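Annex B. Sample input.
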Amino acid sequence: MVQRARVSMLETPRGGDQTESWLISYLDVLTLLITLFVLMVSMLGKAEYETQTQPGIPSAEIGPKASGIQPRHDGLQPRFEGLQMEGVSVDEGEQGITLRIDDNLLFKSGQAELTAGGGEVIESLVPMLESFEGQISVEGHTDNIPIATARFPSNWELSTARAIAVLRYLSAAGIPETRLRAIGYADTQPLESNETPEGRAANRRVELLLKQTL
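Annex B, continued. Sample output.
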């Protein structure tokens, strides 16, 4: 009996069992890796799809379609990019586009009648103003040096009269009066300090505020 048991143990191919067990473990691990890879690819594809379709998130596919949505004042500034004129500047703010004109281009000191050169300056702006659909607020500004004449008892009257003079020119040039308004601010809205001649010169100005209507 003992002898037969010894023969049986010798005849059993232990190496074959070990080899088969190793192959099964390898196949199990390989299957798990493939499954994990498929899951990762699937999750990445789903995340990319949700990003592309979620509102408000730009993507390569929806970017060109959304490019037509622009800020309210976008597109107005380029109309004035070619405006190269000494003493005239363009600024864009929350309220709209502002054309800022130094007063010495338009008026003589202490006066509110447009000079010949001032009329030419305003005339050069008319085509661009006509292409803009919205309200145009003509605003007069002065420095803080007091004025007291028979016609202009204070800077309030002077700034308002200058704004009205520009408004009348624009109206005569064909800009509808329903789109125009004139406001005088005197020295209440300075751009620079009135302590220097340069600052006072910057504060004496006429501004055309272009507001887009709703």
